[in-house]
Structure formats: structure tokens, C-alpha cells
Amino acid sequence: MTxxxxxSNLLRLSxxxxxxxxxxxxxxxYDPTGHTAYGMNGDxxxxxxxxxxxxxxxxxxxxxxxxxxxxxxxxxxxPVGHSRLEDDGVYFDDLTKEQVRDLRQYDPNDMYTDEYQQxxxxxxxxxxxxxxxxxxxxxxxxxxxxxxxxxxxLMEERLVVDKDRxxxxxxxxxxxxxxxxxxxxxxxQREEVxxxxxxxNDGQPVAGAVLGQDSQSMTVDLxxxxxxxxxxxxxxxxxxxxKRTVTDNQTVTETVxxxxxxxxxxxxxxxxxxxxxADPKKV
Length: 283
Description:
This protein is of the alpha+beta class. It has 5 helices and 8 strands. It has a domain at about 5-155: Photosynthetic Reaction Center, Chain H, domain 2, CATH 3.90.50. The longest helix is centred in the middle third of the chain and has 12 residues, at about 115-125. It is rod-shaped and about 180 Å long.
């Protein structure tokens, strides 16, 4: 579970990212983790290790600064209003080495009570650490200390297209027997009886012969050819089965948004043209 910091309704940015699987780059949110931290005169303080954000609004309230450039193994909390955000890091233009030395060591497991917070505020405000800040002075300091830096990053959403593979279909390869009628002409031979009769002109008498008394018959066997049909399988085609990758262009449509600078004027205020380029209709 994400733990709130004991002093208020604050969440650690790293816990929020880990427990709720936020992708700050994808969500268009500013994640300072890993940025270089610079102090007064551009001296390198160390590295931004984490941040504390308001649970309700998600606004960053404190930077967790690893002051390894000035002190070994010391992390401190610096209110966001002391920072200046640049592309190459986070700048704390009024933060001195002495202030970091006097700030309380930050431990996420310890109670960051209002007493500790007031002590850190006195150090950063330049008041004696043991002295008390009156209510008006503290209120005025907090309005500055926890104010969002003047340099805002205006975010826009961009479509990020990922691809995954899925089973789009399947092809089953098999075979079956298809029958058809086929005619083949075959030459077949057969025997026929050939009877030849010849007249006898000088016939001779047959002694003792009586017509019809000695009847004789003759049998002649006739042969013929017939077709014996058999079937033989032959290879007529070879089929090779494989896969290939083809690319189709597909257009996807989604609605994206972007942040536009709002500038509200009160009274007789004149703005330079460069200040109005973001969205002059808002002015």
C-alpha cells in the first residue's frame, strides 16, 4: 500500500509510481527523479531522489534532495517553491551549503512532524533555527515556498502505438479423392466363323448312303479379346506449405489533449508579445 507521509496528506512519488503503476512520461506528468540538483551560484548539491506530492491534486510539494555533492549520505526536504526547473536539472538559487547542513535529515520511516517542518522552514527562511516564526511571517513564507515554480511545462498527449501478436486465423491443409468419368478407346480382337461353300460339278455316288441316316455336326470355338481395367496412382503435383510476413498499413484514430497556458489579467496589465504566444485568446 502507498504510505502517506506522517505530517500531512502527502504521498511519495516513487510509491505512487510503483503501487499504482503510473507511467509519468506517458501521463504527461513531470517526474524529477534522477535530475541533478544545483544550489546557490550553480554549485552541484547532488541528485533529486524523490518528491512528495499532494494526494488530492497530485502537485509536487517537496523535493527529496540527496546532498551527496556537499555532504555524504544526507537527504533533505526542500519545498518546491525554492526550485527553478531547467532542462539540465533542478536549481535552488537561494540554497546554501550551511542551510543544507542545518536541515533535518530526511527519513521516510520517521515522523516529519509540524515541529520539524517549522524548523526546516526557519532554516530556509534565514531565521535562527531555535527562534519562533510568527503566524504572519510563516504564512508569507509558505505562500512562496510551496508555490509552483514559474517555469511550467505544458504537456500534450501523443499517441503511442504498440503492437502485439494474436492468432488471426488458421489454414488446414489436407487432401481428398475427387472422382470423374474417363473414357479410353481400346482395340479388341475377336474371332468370327467363316463358312465357305463350293459346288461339286462331277459328284460321285456314295455307296450305301441314305440321306438323313448319318447326321453329323461340327463345333467351332471362337475367341475374343476383352479389356481388363486396373488403376495406378501417379504423382501429378507437389505442395509445399510455409508462412511469410506481410505488412498492412492501418490508420488508428484517438483523441489527444494538450495543456494550454491560461493568462488572466486584472486591472491595467500589459504583457509582452512573447508571453501571449501560448494562447492569446485566453488573455
